[in-house]
Design goal:
Radius of gyration: 22 Å
CATH topology of the largest domain: FAD/NAD(P)-binding domain
Strand order of the largest sheet: 10-11-12-13-9-14
Number of helices: 13
Number of domains: 2
Oligomer: single chain
Structural class: alpha/beta
Order of helices and strands: EHEEHHEEHEEHEEEEHHHEEHEEHEHHH
């Protein structure tokens, strides 16, 4: 049996390699780092996180909690690594970046069916193969993909938040607490009264204001909107977004603050903190000037400045079938698709390159691609994940050809799942019912896979 080639050692590629290898398929995993770094990566470790170190909500009755549960049931390497390297983050699951990536790297290097090659791939690989190069796909490989997908390849811009040295924070002005008391006192909070917030807001909207307004003309994923762009939508937008003070009264005075900036620990030692919701494209000098107006951060030392980079994804509804294989040769608005003569054999696409948005969403598409490719190579029948599961709903979203003309990336959310057979008015009970239905269906999907 031939080997499965996987291009890209991020979350999706790592998960795909692990899933296929666990099914007994020999895998060659290509990763160009550290020989060639992307604008956001810093190491050659597999599974390196380039934006936040948070994997979103860990609550069971949330869409991200459901996705975590499905991945865990499917023996996900990424979830295994996340649990092993988790750090306190309230109701969210956050990880120590370096330990997380090191864990993934070591597990893949030790697997007898996986061979890791440090090399840049600049052309479409020979099938069977999975392309999981993520939103920071190299220019050469992106050009090769574009030759197949044509002008319908898309992109958007993504921004990352600064990281602050913990020793530079003024702890007399900040306090530990989690919003609504969920989890422990895992977040460091920088409180603002109204005059302080107004000074900060004015400085933020004036800093690099021309570039910030120009940025509104390019494609940006709403969940990673730069804070200076978000601020331009209105003076109270931030107070109802990342700076909302609800559930965070000042512990010494009991006062409800006008706004609160939250900092999330980057590691268990709390030696570095991420500025939650502060994705930005401001120049470094402007970040220093504006963000040091935040109480407690007046002497902040930046271990990493916020930045912006272009994220690449393809118009998956037009170019991927329901098994995540390239099906090129169709045109926008068509109601059917055929495999192009330019794509010979089974080439799958996984991760954020498919148009899902988020760490775990990318992991889920890697998991499915690894299973789909391995089963095809082993001569086993294809099994679709049910659409009422989180993984199945994401797959359905990115492969629905009717969405091709207006396709945009999406996180997992309950709106992607089909409605319940019985209407439930109570929102919490409705979420619980959606989760229960999904997990029952997901277990059925796993049984079908296990039984061949």
């Amino acid at each position: 049996m031939s080997r499965l080639t996987i291009i890209g050692g991020g979350l999706a590629g790592s998960e795909a390699a692990y899933q296929a290898a666990c099914l007994g398929v020999d895998v060659t995993l290509y990763e160009m780092r550290p020989l060639r770094l992307t604008p956001a990566h810093k190491t050659g470790l597999l599974g390196e996180l380039v934006c936040s170190n948070s994997l979103r909500s860990d609550l069971a009755d949330t869409a991200h909690g459901l996705l975590k549960a499905e991945l865990t049931l499917a023996n996900s390497l990424i979830m295994e690594a996340a649990r092993a390297t988790a750090i306190p983050a309230g109701s969210a699951l956050a990880v120590n970046r370096e330990e997380f990536a090191t864990y993934i790297t070591n597990r893949l290097k030790a697997h007898p069916h996986i061979r890791i090659v440090t090399e840049e791939v600049t052309a479409l690989p020979a099938p069977p193969a999975i392309i999981a190069t993520g939103p920071l796909t190299s220019d050469a490989l992106a050009a090769a993909i574009s030759k197949v997908t044509g002008d319908n390849s898309l992109y958007f811009y993504d921004a990352i938040a600064p990281i602050i040295d913990a020793d530079s924070i003024d702890y007399d002005l900040v306090y530990y607490s989690s919003r609504y008391g969920k989890g422990g006192d895992d977040y460091l909070n920088c409180p603002m009264d109204e005059p302080t917030y107004n000074r900060f807001y004015d400085a933020l909207t004036e800093a690099d204001s021309i570039a910030a307004r120009d940025f509104e003309d390019v494609k940006v994923f709403e969940g990673c909107m730069p804070i200076e762009v978000m601020a331009l939508r209105g003076k109270d937008t931030l107070r109802f977004g990342p700076l909302r003070p609800v559930g965070l009264p000042h512990p010494r005075t009991g006062e409800m603050m006008h706004a609160v900036v939250q900092l999330r620990a980057e590691n268990a030692q709390r030696s570095a903190f991420n500025m939650v919701g502060f994705q930005t494209r401001l120049r470094q000098s402007q970040q220093q000037r504006v963000f040091r107006l935040i109480p407690g951060l007046q002497n902040a030392e930046f271990l990493r400045y916020g930045s912006i980079h272009r994220n690449t994804f393809i118009n998956s509804p037009l170019y991927l079938d329901k098994s995540l294989r390239l099906r090129c040769g169709c045109t926008t608005g068509s109601t059917s698709a055929k495999r192009s003569s330019q794509v010979e054999g089974d080439i799958y696409v996984a991760g954020q390159l498919t148009g899902v948005e988020g760490y775990l969403e990318s992991t889920a598409m890697g998991l499915l691609a690894g299973i789909f490719a391995a089963r095809q190579m082993l001569g086993l029948p294809h099994v679709d994940p049910p659409a009422d599961t989180a993984c199945g709903a994401l797959l359905a979203y990115i492969t629905n050809i009717d969405r091709g003309a207006s396709f945009q990336p999406s996180n997992i959310n309950f709106g992607l799942l089909p409605p319940l057979d019985k209407h439930i008015r109570d929102r919490n009970q409705k979420k619980q019912a959606l989760v229960a239905r999904a997990l029952q269906s997901w277990r059925g999907f796993q049984r079908l896979n296990d039984n061949g």
